[in-house]
Design brief:
The protein is α/β, with parallel strands linked by helices. The protein has two domains: about 200 residues, Glycosyl transferase family 10, C-terminal domain (Rossmann fold), CATH 3.40.50.11660; about 120 residues, no CATH class. Helix content is about 30%, strand content about 15%. The chain has a seven-stranded mixed sheet with strand order 2-3-1-4-5-6-7, with helices on one face. The chain has a five-stranded parallel sheet with strand order 9-8-10-11-12, with helices on both faces.
């Protein structure tokens, strides 16, 4: 017997109900539109659903190596690495060989006249680029005929007569105010005559560099501040109330005293060259998975030692500060707290990251894979290289003959 053909309406209804049954049974699944595009400003990690409460950083490194490794890391973050490596405007470039013809002097002497924190071991005779030498000193005996005076805490002379040294004034604070009397101005900002970032090793002069591979899993965050600014305190309080933490210093202290870090971590006191408790900040920080770093003032390019201390101590900074901070740090190395919609969202992310050794280790991949981005330029424009860069600026102006 010949079968009657099914009409179009019947076939359509059969296909529709079959599709509905498969979809609600979970056999078919469509990607969410909300998750299809991830903005650059948000975290991109896919954190494990099952917590892994690791306490040893080397364990995290081994798991990350087995699951990702440097090649995949560079491929995964290639767009971010390329973007941050090619940004310009936030950092001054070193004088290239092509600029050697702009130099008018083969030797420059800088005499430091007033200072507070410029370290003594910066005093030296430097061999700089383009065959130029630079004497940086605090001794008027060694610099009896300087080409420039450097003032940091005192104001330069009101007038400079012909044949006198150039007047250099440095202000690395957030306001970066000109004295109005200087010939050359040094600040943290690339727009000024000479830039000095906080990224160099000399900002850590005399510190105990012992770094522990142990990471405290019960107390996730390290916070230390002794300048209790109301706005910064309130911000820190809002986040820290959501996370287990140790608060050292005078502000929001919850450990029982300023020197408790050495009581918690006695191995940090083994360095006889660093007798004070604040000399052991790096060592103490290294025992925590995260360090909260909040700038005194939020302004462009003002990225201070608060952030770089955390990076150098082998931890992951949670940062609140300069809006262009990514121009100064390695790709995928910090958690920018301003990119989260709430403190609750940030705290949830930190907790999940603390229990995912692979995702956590990825924040350390930059140092293990040599992915520096603009961080290399930030260090090249730091206090470490300031003597040669200042001497080059003095030479371009002709020194005493300017």
């Amino acid at each position: 017997m010949q079968l009657k053909p099914l009409n179009t309406l019947t076939v359509t209804l059969m296909l529709f109900f079959t599709f509905v049954i498969l979809f609600f049974s979970g056999f078919l699944e469509f990607p969410s539109l909300a998750n299809s595009v991830e903005p650059l400003s948000k975290p991109t990690e896919s954190l494990n659903s099952e917590p892994d409460q690791f306490t040893d950083l080397f364990t995290a490194f081994k798991k990350w190596d087995s699951r990702m490794g440097c090649a995949q890391f560079k491929e995964k973050h290639k767009d971010l690495i390329h973007l941050l490596s090619n940004r310009s405007g936030s950092l001054q470039e070193a004088v290239a060989d092509s600029g050697c013809n702009e130099l008018k002097m083969e030797h420059v002497t800088v005499l430091v006249k007033g200072w507070t924190w410029i370290p003594d071991n910066l005093d030296n005779l430097y061999s700089c680029g383009c065959g130029m030498s630079c004497l940086w000193t605090k001794s008027s005996v060694l610099a009896d005929k300087p080409d420039a005076f450097l003032f940091e805490t005192t104001t330069p002379p009101l007038q400079r007569r012909s044949g006198d040294p150039l007047r250099v004034y440095m202000d690395l604070e957030a306001g970066r105010r000109h004295s109005g009397r200087e010939d050359i101005f040094i600040s943290y900002h690339a727009k000024d005559d000479v830039q000095s970032t906080y990224a160099g090793a000399l900002f850590h002069n005399g510190r105990n560099y012992h770094v522990s591979s142990y990471k405290n899993n019960d107390t996730l965050v390290y916070w230390s501040s002794s300048r209790c600014l109301p706005q910064r305190n309130q911000l820190a309080k809002r986040l820290l109330r959501l996370l287990p933490h140790h608060s050292f210093g005078k502000c929001l202290n919850n450990v029982g005293g300023l020197d408790m870090a050495l009581s918690f971590y006695p191995e940090c006191a083994n360095d006889a060259n660093a007798p004070k408790w604040w000399d052991h900040l790096h060592c103490a920080m290294s025992h925590y998975k995260f360090v909260l770093a909040i700038e005194n003032t939020v302004t462009e390019s003002y990225v201070t030692e608060k952030l770089f201390y955390a990076l150098d101590s082998g931890t992951v900074p949670i940062y609140f500060g300069a809006p262009n901070v990514l121009d100064f740090v390695p790709p995928h190395s910090i958690i920018d707290g301003t990119k989260f919609s709430s403190m609750e969202e940030l705290a949830s992310y930190v907790k999940a990251l603390a229990n995912d050794p692979v995702a956590y280790a990825e924040y350390h991949a930059w140092r293990r894979c040599g992915v520096l981005g603009n961080y290399a330029k930030a260090r090249a424009a730091s206090l470490d290289t300031l003597p040669c860069r200042l001497c080059e600026a003095v030479s371009r102006r002709g020194g005493r003959n300017a």
